[in-house]
Amino acid sequence: MRIDVFTLFPGLVDGFCSDSLLGKARDNDLLDLRLHDPRDHTSDVHRTVDDAPFGGGAGMLMKPEPLFASVEAADPPRPLFLLGPGGRTFDQGMARELAELDGFSLLCGRYEGVDHRVRRHLVDDELSIGDVVLNGGEVAACLVVEAVVRLLPGAMGNAESPVTESFGASGLLEEPHFTRPADFRGWSVPDVLRSGDHARVARWRHAQALHRTIAARPDLIDARGGLTDDDRALLEEFPPHPYH
């Protein structure tokens, strides 16, 4: 997958995407990450990329010329998303949609935003990571890249992980997980997980995922169309674990 990121701080994105699973994905040619600095497409000695807004007001805006020139020179994969508050909220469903593409691109805003002609005539859409104010789009870009790339076949060591984790194929939060020691400060691992009965373990895990989701995110249950008869039977078979 090719992902192009347009940013005034390419080192921020490159550094984050060089470690852990993202770094391995790049080394294994699963991710072709290309970073573009609009300052490289300025014509003045100061490499100016911002200017005061017409009509006055606080702050500076990113100028259209360097952004258009940078995008046109790169000819990046589309869609090209502007990272900003006015777009569709990025979630796991959108991550899965983007993971089905051959590539996409992200434009990181800075200062008070971008000239409106960028939003209107250069990008294809706007993407938001939520109702929060950041200094720029780089952190958001890193979030989007990681969420999408980890869904690519071969990007994670365990192919089952993207399916069973929170917001995965089941649409539920994850159940509690445990590792050694079996007893820690008097808190014991549930007997069912040490039983060796894999079918019972699977039922327990699904029941705990249901219990946790009902308690913490009932909206996700509603999004699945409510509880099925099988769900209700599991909830009766296995009480909620106390470590939610």
Q: Which helices and strands, and how do they pair?
A:
Blueprint: E1 2-6, H1 10-16, H2 20-27, E2 32-36, E3 50-51, E4 61-62, H3 64-74, E5 80-89, H4 92-99, E6 103-108, H5 116-121, E7 125-128, H6 138-149, H7 161-164, E8 183-184, E9 187-188, H8 198-216, H9 218-223, H10 229-237
Parallel strand pairs: 1-2, 1-6, 5-6, 5-7
Antiparallel strand pairs: 3-4, 8-9
The gyration radius over C-alpha positions equals: 23 Å
Could you name the CATH topology of the largest domain?
Alpha/beta knot
Number of extended strands? 9
* Beta strand %: 15-25%
Spatial arrangement of strands, main beta sheet:
2-1-6-5-7
- Following the backbone from N to C, one meets helices and strands in this order, namely EHHEEEHEHEHEHHEEHHH
Low-confidence runs of at least 5 consecutive residues: none
Number of distinct helices: 10
Q: Give the termini separation.
A: 37 Å
* Biggest sheet descriptor: 5 strands, parallel
**On the 0-100 scale, what is the average pLDDT?**
93
Number of domains: 2
Overall SS class: alpha/beta
The portion of residues assigned to helices is 25-40%
Q: What is the CATH class designation of the largest domain?
A: Alpha Beta
Task: Name the shape in a single word.
Answer: elongated
At the fourth level of CATH, the homologous superfamily of the largest domain is: SPOUT methyltransferase, trefoil knot domain
Name given to the CATH architecture of the largest domain:
3-Layer(aba) Sandwich
Notes on the protein architecture:
The protein is 37% helix and 16% strand. The protein contains 10 helices and 9 strands. It has helices spanning 10-16, 20-27, 64-74, 92-99, 116-121, 138-149, 161-164, 198-216, 218-223, 229-237; strands spanning 2-6, 32-36, 50-51, 61-62, 80-89, 103-108, 125-128, 183-184, 187-188. The strands form 3 sheets. A 5-stranded parallel sheet has the order 2-1-6-5-7. The longest helix is centred in the last third of the chain and has 19 residues, at 198-216. The model has no long low-confidence stretch (mean pLDDT 93). It is found in: Cytoplasm. Residues 1-222 form the tRNA methyltransferase TRMD/TRM10-type domain.
